[in-house]
Design goal:
disordered C terminus, mainly alpha, two-stranded antiparallel ribbon, globular, 24 helices
């Protein structure tokens, strides 16, 4: 009785009284059955972990972490989105990986299974409904089909052998779609979406700072990256004066920086005085990350993204701030810029990397692509060919639109263009609103505009870390309700409760937003 009065008066009773109330509260049959079932499960889990630890402590710890993550995600599904957005840029390029998959891909599989189980359980009770799809969603489905199912059917019809490389490339778009679905199905309030945006900027800032230090060869960063983040085990690739950072790919670092620069600028245009310094500092770090990557295509993309951001936000002072930031960036990263400019001092006046790129396209890809009408339905999903005398043993397609035609022909090219156009249009529409969806929409419109141009040089859509971030943030561009607004509504009157009593007596429990 005393505990009920304390609750009505919103006074927290002493701990000993709450403990005594919990111990003396009568429990029904179903409550005791649930408690016994939980005790049995915990006992079996302890025995299983103990036995596994006796065999292998490593696998016991992995199992313990997986079990803890599973319980956390099942209890709070938004945690899956938080962890994917924060951890993917930090672990996507790591050398030590789970067999057959990278650590971030293992997280995607785990979270997808857990979210699917939770969703199916909700469907059975009538708590879940099929989401409404828009043009962006349909274009994403078209991307998945035209990059996997359609090319495989074409290869079967033309009696071309399907290799494991083809099958692995077929799941790339579907992996990105899985991340999109996870965030879209777990982030349900504006507060959660805003946390996602901040986590994305924090992860990108870490990646860019490491990339800047790597490009300048400071604090032993190249040595650490060579040990843990060397691309395909080639340690010398991290010491060439380009900021590949934790993504093991300089262009991917620049793409990630451009996307999060859009988030920072969109927030800066709406933020108060307390957050402006932090956001301005992050924006400068993102610009330096693009320069440290030392990629001409992404520098062009940065210029395009800034123009789009000025148009969408109306933040014209951004152009004035861009000049001193650019000058400071050039001074700070002049060794990196100077190294890239020396490439134009070759006999042909063109950097050697550009000549190699064009030679590879003319030798390994374009002859087969533009023969026998292969450009209509593509050649095969695998976007690389084995060349033993090359550094990595393979030659990749270093042209985004050539990659689209090679992997799926005109259907895949049309699907990508539709996705980019609809994504930019949707981002521009939401940029006129308020809240996290407007911030995400602004960043997506700027990033996709830059990507349309950068795809002339490289397949930026699926770059590790950057492609994941694009789809993760894209899932936030939708109408998201506010938890505060939902909880602020007055409680519904019931027939058994008099209206007068409702105005004088406080409810037993009131939800307070986090």
């Amino acid at each position: 009785m005393t505990l009920d009065i304390a609750r009505r008066q919103r006074v927290t009773p002493p701990f000993w009284r709450r403990l005594a109330s919990a111990c003396t509260r009568p429990a029904g049959k179903s409550g005791w059955a649930s408690r016994v079932r939980l005790d049995v499960i915990l006992l079996v889990a302890c025995v299983a972990f103990g036995g596994l630890a006796a065999v292998s402590l490593k696998y016991a710890l992995i199992g313990l972490v997986v079990t803890g993550l599973s319980g956390w995600v099942l209890a709070k599904p938004q945690v899956a989105a938080y962890l994917l957005i924060l951890l993917t840029p930090l672990i996507v390029g790591v050398n030590v990986a789970v067999p057959l998959v990278r650590p971030n891909e293992a997280l995607i599989v785990l979270f997808a299974v857990l979210i699917a189980v939770r969703w199916v359980a909700g469907v059975r009770t009538g708590e879940r409904r099929w989401p409404k799809l828009d043009k962006v969603d349909y274009s994403l489905l078209a991307l998945g089909i035209t990059s996997s199912g359609l090319p495989l059917l074409m290869m079967l019809a033309r009696q071309r052998p399907i290799t494991s490389d083809d099958l692995l490339y077929c799941i790339v778009i579907w992996k990105l779609l899985a991340e999109y679905v996870i965030v879209r199905s777990t982030i349900t309030t504006k507060e959660q979406a805003m946390r996602c945006l901040w986590l994305s900027m924090i992860a990108a800032a870490i990646v860019c700072l490491i990339g800047v230090l790597q490009s300048l060869n400071l604090l032993g960063v190249p040595g650490l990256l060579a040990h843990f983040y060397a691309p395909l085990g080639q340690a010398e690739a991290v010491s060439i004066g380009r900021g590949s950072s934790l993504l093991a790919l300089p262009a991917a670092v620049a793409d990630l920086a451009i996307l999060n620069l859009g988030i920072a600028i969109a927030m800066l245009a709406r933020a108060g005085k307390g957050q402006r310094k932090w956001l301005a500092g992050m924006a400068i770090v993102f610009v330096l990350g693009v320069v440290a990557a030392a990629e001409f295509s992404t520098v062009i993309g940065l210029v395009i993204a800034v123009i789009v951001l000025v148009i969408l936000t109306g933040y014209k002072r951004l152009l004035a701030y861009a000049v001193p930031v650019a000058i400071a960036g050039i001074i700070a990263l002049w060794p990196v810029i100077q190294m890239r400019l020396t490439g134009f001092q070759s006999a042909s006046g063109v950097p050697v990397s550009w000549e190699t790129r064009l030679t590879n396209l003319r030798t390994y890809f374009w002859p087969q692509l533009f023969s026998d009408n292969n450009w209509i339905l593509g050649v095969r999903p695998a976007a690389r060919v084995a060349v033993p005398n090359q550094l990595y043993g393979f030659v990749w397609i270093e042209s985004g639109y050539t990659w689209l035609l090679w992997g799926g022909g005109l259907p895949l090219l049309a699907s990508y263009l539709a996705f980019a156009v609809y994504g930019i249009r949707k981002g521009c529409q939401f940029a006129k609103r308020q809240g996290p969806a407007a911030i995400a929409g602004t960043a997506i419109a700027a990033a996709l505009s830059a990507q349309l141009v950068a795809m002339l040089f490289d397949p930026h859509l699926t770059y590790r870390g950057a492609g994941d971030a694009l789809f993760l943030i894209l899932a936030l561009v939708r109408i998201i309700p506010s938890r505060r607004g939902a909880s602020a509504r007055p409680p519904r009157q019931t027939a058994q409760q008099p209206k007068k009593a409702a105005t004088t007596t406080a409810p037993d429990r009131q939800e307070v937003p986090a």
